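Why this split exists: single-chain examples teach little about how molecules sit against one another. For that reason, every record in the complexes split bundles all components of an assembly together and asks for one structure covering all of them. Below is a record exactly as it appears in the raw files.
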Amino acid sequence: MTSDAPAIPTADAARPLLQRPKEVADRVTWIGALDPALRNFDIILKTANGTTYNSYVVRGSAGVAVIDTVKQEFTEEFFAKLEEVVPYDEITTLVLNHLEPDHTGAVPEFLRRAPHVHIYVSPRGLQVLRALLKDEFERYEVTTVETGDTVSLGDRTLRFLTTPYVHWPDTQCTYLEEQNLLFTCDLLGCHYCDARLFNDKVGDFRFSFEYYFDHIMRPFKRYVTEALDLIEPLEIDMIAPGHGPVLRAHPREYITHYRRLITKRLASETGAEKTLLVFYVSAYGATAQMAEAITEGAAESDDVRVSLFDIQGGDVTPFIDLIEEADGLAIGTPTINGDAVRTVWDLLSSLVDIETKGKLGAAFGSYGWTGEAVGMVEARMQGLKMRVPEQGLRIKMHPTGDELEDCRDFGRRLAAHLAGRPVEREIDMSALLGR
Amino acid sequence: MAKAKLTFTDVALTVNVPAGTRIIEISEKIGSGITYGCREGECGTCITRIIEGQDNLSEPSALETRVLKDNLAGRNDRLACQCQVLGGTVKVKPG
């Protein structure tokens, strides 16, 4: 616990409550770990309130399941709770909803202690489990499960929902049918540590819930949508996530809130139009001239809405929301010291927080000597899983009248790609030798 | 050498390639949205939808078959880092 982080409850205050299992529903027991001192998660998240690693035991008349485990450093704490709830020989089932280390840190040791259990993972989870267990993998009984598959514990039934990419390829949810209880692992979770555990008992964690969504789930909105499509028809009395409070009071509200967070804002503003955002930085006005001409050319298309932004010296943060909902992105940068300019890199690096896959990307810029910035921006766009259908446009020094017309053509072609009516082209492979 | 036509529909471009060319050799150079992770057929990042010409591709190896299955790939999906265009016409888009 650091002295400058007086989260409530404090680590010391929470500690006495950490050592015991806690029943969250009839024959469903929380056996996770609290980590109130954590201040940074996965490098990308600040965790002013620490976090929890939630694991659960479900007891049926003919079997006992453990749902997920904890981060490796909390392994002993996990086993102490587990042993208080159930002897190893009674455990029949291990469900791994997500294989990231903060949920599977205790898995190797758990399997040494209970090697007879049957492990259930998603199909994509299998490859991570194989990597986690290395040579020991072949010793265990593992079954991959998909949406609709069930495992019976006697009078309790676990039903699986394949919900990939929320936020890893392997993620799934597990539904305890008889109690309308959904184990979601990272989905609908948050980093908030409070030993009172239930959402109607802990402190105000709303900020943490949204902050977690923004940094973990937002780049996967498309997949969150698919997950919610599966979850929303279920009767839900409780949501038991892998981090943060157990949502037993009005759990449906959290699902509804996620739906709100993934819905486009003011969607009717653009309607059926495709949107192209043109951003630029210009040292001597040449790249600005290019940007304006590209915008003019693209704007000739009635079904593409084009917007132009000079981002020199500005904060790029406000543009992230805009880019998230845009169909295309063209970035202009001069080449300075053999590189794109810092503001452009700031913008491009910020895009890690949103989904850019499949968007149209394009780069352009004026240069004095070498002009490699355009190619660098294109490479970054490809790294962001964007398609870059038009080779970047580079112009040495200020553009001539003809070159400005080339820029307008470039804009027209970008608009045509966005509108779904590009001019089909054919080339020989030899034309790619220089790329 | 036998030739083939490989079309990337997301960028509206057809490339005339020699038989035996892998999709990975072309897609990044022309800006297609097909993306790669390990580039060795293990991670499944480069799953690509074959729109036309499935029969004009090399047979999937045991590794590719397993990775496609593990990643819940569809019947017309292949790994762009693995499959080779053997001839005729093949049309693809990012999976």
